[in-house]
């Protein structure tokens, strides 16, 4: 009878050990996934912040040359035709070779009393598009 109790104890111990290992593996996997999602959330937050800053610069100066001047801090931004490109580090500091790229594509439609100027702003992180937004301004003819 003692042998049956000993065998049952060993089997229960093995079963509980297997269950504990499964729980530990599941928790480890969940924590690793949470860390990955946290990194993605931080990158998205940074991308939104940079896009908002570019949209504000566009509202102040809706033409590529003036906008590039506003965004250019340490040779990190330039205008090329109707496009403005600016680069930033992971800390959102202006950096010529930064991993965050802000691309602003500007289109202008002439009207009778002024110009309707639109901008499509895209933020890429290491070549992968993370966030984009569209904005526009109306510039009355003869307004400075």
Concise synopsis of the structure shown:
The chain has 144 residues and is an alpha+beta fold. The protein contains two helices and five strands. It has a five-stranded antiparallel beta sheet with strand order 1-2-3-4-5.
Mind summarizing the main beta sheet? 5 strands, antiparallel
Number of helices: 2
List low-pLDDT spans: none
Number of strands: 5
Task: Tell me the number of structural domains.
Answer: 1
Instruction: Please estimate the helix content.
Output: 40-55%
* Topology as a string of helices (H) and strands (E): HHEEEEE
Termini Cα gap: 100 Å
Q: Order of strands side by side in the largest beta sheet?
A: 1-2-3-4-5
In what range is the share of β-strand residues? 25-35%
Shape call = rod-shaped
Overall mean pLDDT stands at 89
Structural class: alpha+beta
What integer value in Å does the Rg equal?
28 Å
Attribute tags:
144 residues; 2 helices; 5 strands; rod-shaped
Structural overview:
With 144 residues, the chain is an alpha+beta fold. The chain has one domain (2-140). 47% of the residues lie in helices and 32% in strands. It is built from two helices and five strands. It has a five-stranded antiparallel beta sheet. A hairpin with a 2-residue loop joins strand 1 and strand 2. Helix 1 packs across helix 2 (64-71). The longest helix is centred in the N-terminal third of the chain and has 59 residues, at 2-60. The model has no long low-confidence stretch (mean pLDDT 89).
């Amino acid at each position: 009878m003692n042998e049956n109790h000993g065998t049952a104890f060993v089997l229960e111990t093995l079963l509980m050990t297997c269950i504990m290992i499964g729980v530990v593996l599941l928790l480890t996997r969940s924590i690793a996934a949470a860390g990955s999602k946290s990194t993605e959330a931080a990158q998205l937050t940074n991308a939104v912040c940079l896009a908002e800053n570019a949209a504000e610069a566009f509202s102040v100066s809706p033409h590529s040359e003036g906008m590039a001047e506003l965004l250019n801090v340490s040779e990190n931004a330039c205008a090329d035709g109707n496009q403005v490109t600016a680069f930033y580090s992971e800390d959102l500091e202006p950096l010529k070779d930064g991993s965050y790229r802000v691309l602003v594509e500007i289109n202008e439609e002439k009207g009778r009393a002024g110009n309707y100027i639109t901008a499509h702003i895209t933020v890429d992180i290491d070549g992968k598009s993370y966030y984009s937004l569209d904005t526009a301004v109306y510039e009355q003819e003869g307004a400075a």
